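Sample entry (221 residues):
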Amino acid sequence: MNTEKKYNKAIIIGASVISETDMDRLKNECDDAYTVAADAGMEQCMAGDIRPDLWVGDMDSAGDNMLAVVKSIYPDMMIETCSPIKDDTDMAIAVKKAVEKGCRDIVIYGGLKGDRMDHSLANIQLLHHFKLKGVNLRMISDSTEMYCLMKEEKKYDKTKTGMISLFSLTDKSDISIKGLYYEYEGVLKNSYALGVSNEFSGREACIRVDDGVVLVVCINQ
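Predicted structure, serialized as tokens:
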């Protein structure tokens, strides 16, 4: 009999420092989610006393010392190391491992890093890449949450507050915005930031994407 646990949701933990508030949220979400540490993301797991189901990466950021420490504390932890000469980032490999487990709702913590903007942009591209594959991938960092919408609508309760910005990741996206401070129906282009700095207005809101892929950036206040 196959007794392997089935997961619908996954948590991926990256190397960026995770705030205390997000760490508390992360711990709660880990209870029923497949949890993967991506390379130096294991440092964030250790700091938050989180044992992931899998630790994966080329370990160039984590280093041999961290590898030895983890093996001594968790001798039976699943660890997969890969060559640093590869096409995928460690984060991309971590997400793929979660998808292989059957997860279609995946949240990345520690994926935005100010001193490695190239990695942050690569992770935004992951949101787009996996959206095209039918995977709902979100990225959370401090007060910011990012995700993509494609041929769907997203509704927001009237109690939602903060800023929200929309960016077309495709050449153009046909969208409808209702209930936000700035309402709009038309086209967003990836060459012009028309959708930046909108706001929740105390009304129920809805964003509908009829064509294209839109990156949503919510900043809670």
